[in-house]
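TEACHING EXERCISE
Course module: macromolecular assemblies
Task: Read the component lines below, then compare them to the predicted structure of the full complex.
Student: A.B.
Group: 4
Components provided:
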Amino acid sequence: MSTDRQKLRIGGGLVDRGKPVTFRFDGRVLKGFAGDTLASALLANGRHLVGRSFKYHRPRGIFAAGVEEPNALVELGAEDRLTPNVQATAQELYEGLQAKSQNRWPSLRFDLMAVNNLFSRFLTAGFYYKTFMWPAGAWEFYEKFIRRAAGMGKGTHLPDPDTYEHVHDHADIAVVGSGPAGLSAALTAAEAGKDVLLIEQDFELGGTLLYEAGEIAGQANADWRRQTIARINGEPKIRVLTRTTAFGYYENNILGCVERVQDHVLTPDPHVPRQRLRHVRAEKVILATGAFERPFVFGNNDLPGILLSSAAEAYVNRYAVLPGEKMVLYTNQESGYRVAASLLERGIRLAAIIDARSPVPTRHHHFAREAGIPLYPAHEVAEAKGGLHLKGLVIRKIGDGLEPRDIRLDCDTLIQSAGWAPVLHLQSQRGIKPVYHAALDSYLPGKCADGQHACAGAAAGYPTSEDAAVHGHKVARYLIGAAKTAPRLYAPKDAPPPSPAPVPLTRAKCFVDLQHDVTRSDIEQGVREGFRSPEHIKRYTTQGMAADQGKTGNINTLKILSQVQDKEQSGVGTTTFRPPYTPLTIGAVAGRSIAGELRPTRLSPFHDCHVRAGAEFITAGDWLRPWYYPGPGEDVTAAYIREAGEVRSGVGMVDVSTLGKIDIQGPDAAEFLNRVYVNGWKTLPVGKARYGLMLRDDGMVMDDGTTWRLGEHHYFMTTTTTGAGAVMRHLEYLLQIDWPELKVHLTSVSDEWGGVAIAGPRSRAVLGSSFPGVDVSTEAIPHMGVLEFDHEGLPVRICRLSFSGELAFEVYTRAGFAGNLWDLLTEGGKPHDLRLYGSEALGALRIEKGHVAGPELDGRTTADDLGLGGMQSTKKAYVGSVLKNREGLIRNDRRQLAGLKPVEGDTPLKAGMLLFEGDGITPKGHGIGHVTSVTYSPELKRHIALALLAEGRERVGTLIRAVDNGGATVIDVKVCSPHFIDPEGERLHA
Amino acid sequence: MLRIDCPFCGLRDETEFTYGGDASRTRPPLDETRAEVWNDYVYQRPNPKGLHSEYWFHQHGCRSWLKITRDMVSHEITAVAYAKDTGE
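Instructor-supplied answer key:
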């Protein structure tokens, strides 16, 4: 069914009647115009009811005309572009837009879940805490039912088809908001020669000037806006970002902004991101963020047809939409009458004005009389009446001592104005508390001590557009240094009497937080139950914790707390706002850092060689490493068992380029190594290497590796792959901060050198064939011997050391020559049947040999725990040498490195299994240790594991149990030495 | 986000740096053998509400350790120096 009739559309406004737009809401085809929001187009078609509420499923309508909207949340788009909880009042209308109402079933007009409303007496503050959190574990059971009954829109599980990007912006002055204050501030700063970034969340510049009646410097608001925008467009110093929300304000004047590049088109251009996250760094920031209008709290104040008076003015003047046929104004201050006059100018006569003040100033009586609008002074709205829409009001005279007499007023729309609340979210994010000003009965910005930012215009309390424009100008002059003193916040000369916020007696629900369905009685109950601070009340009642962060509700909560606790408003305190100001997509936060781009991928200089050799790769930290080289039909298990066997019986080659590598030079290098490693380094001759172990200051093992002495004052250190960055940082710390007297320089060369290990009984033969003319005999290169030479232009560094327990050599070259080295070795290896092995076989070989690696070096193990205690010199001091002897670190019952063999050799173990005594008692608690590394041993033809086990060395030969799945899997294992093969190291010295 | 004015590289984002902890402590001499002294050095930290002296490592820059004075409440950085220069 389609209709062209926009029955509540009126003349004027800023919508483009030349560009009609067709859209769908809940399947129904409707028409609007370019320049509409989804909300204004729905209202033009007579649609007020747009959703059901979060908890009670009460019918809800459009309440505001901007980002403060608590009710009108819709699901936008479909399938993989479905976005839930989009504010209809902030969503620009576009051709083909599809939206659905949320949180209703089966339909919006008839919602079965509205039965919650009848049980509402049970759904009060703290209901979930009291009901479902006991007994322990019950919440897990209830949660899924509760989530279904209460809640917001549903997202999609499909992958996001759009792209997002991050951009960095710089400016002398960033201006947030383009109302009268923002526009004049931007112009003032730019004309003084500053680079200005003007940030506006709307798709049009102007803020309140887009709809508010008023004058600036003798010009009507609308005219001043047009002329100022023309000047801004002609000003090359100003960069304008519309559809861009400053959602976060951080230290050093960094603004987090999200630009909605393509949220207003049906089919996005695939070459342009959907949204941009902009990191704005500004010298100075001007927060011209305006003010939100405050609503009243009365019975059924959530009915569709009840909205803010500023919203009504925006719908009439900007969007040319009549919110209703019979409108009543409820107010307690000046600006309500300004709206009444503004509407009257458009020929819209209110049906009545209800003013809570006593007395009402004479000029308002005059206005009402001349306009022919009945005025009810000193009256309150007790309750609204209606089902799916407002039908009438029950009003009462306030405080005349007589029995209150209900007056019934028929109307279809109530517009309300209970005062203003400056938008202080961004400043509050910086930890600056808003300050209560009794003269304005409102919270104004706190003091910005460092002069890096200022709030301008309505955000500083200024009520009229002219005041705001002047204030914006002054703030800009102050921040650019043209004026010495900071312009003052608004302080009226004749303070108006405080605006009463009546508390009507009614049995109907009086909502404070429309989005989270929190009522006045919930707040009162929270206070009765002992919650005092606004921060506690917020968490207990959930007021202000919805997606709108209580933009329209917070100030009423603070007022209620003041009334109920009988406390001065200034003593009540406030809550703290946190980013984001309005909801943010995860896509914008992630930007391009998704999937494979989440982290940088580091490739070994041999990467292309592995690809050519048909390697399967695995991600290890940032690295992509060859995992195994599959033979025909082989999976990883078959391949690594074969590869490891080939190393033990023949010869294999593995890439070790991922190890951290540090070049150490200087006359004090030996002294430095002697201080950072537990073992002695002063006797290491040139041309030899040594295994070294490093502790942290607290005595725990930090890292291990080998360091080669290349020259008198020149060493080459290797670290573990994962420890590379931390070790470099640690060593630089010691040299730069603690021992600046040592003459040592460090250079990270991890990326400059690439290397392979050649391991196995035939490894020496491979080197001999690859480097003819180089002596690789045991005499020339003994165990831990280092050779450095140039082979036909190829720089080569070789050290005879072993991670596998076999005779082995590490061969390094400059990273740029990696391919040449690889070709040379594979060619030289041909006569000796040189095979390739990957990280999985490398792991199997080191577990068989009992060498520790990442899973054992977990930051909680001492050298002694790892069986390396004997390495620790007793003749010298080194990092960690004192604290390693602390009582808790030398106890006998510490977990020590041990080997495990499952009693049934074909039963695999899993890393992370907990270990328990073999006493048959049901395993309970944390056990006596855990499995760290597991593999199938091709050498022993059985599964084996390394473990950290309490008193592990004493337990060798005993039976214990390895337990998994919370006790469901129990495997009997025998404790043994962690050195499964060749414990004497005979192969190494072959 | 903090922005740190590195004496070698200029004004850079916090993301280029790694925090290195309290800079008011002094490493005991290498031959210090009393566990209490090392315990104080390794574990005891002031947590002032106000100015705090701390080390930052310019990991993705010049790889210098910097000594910075930062207000723990406002995050304002009032001094940045090359750690090796201090005390000389």
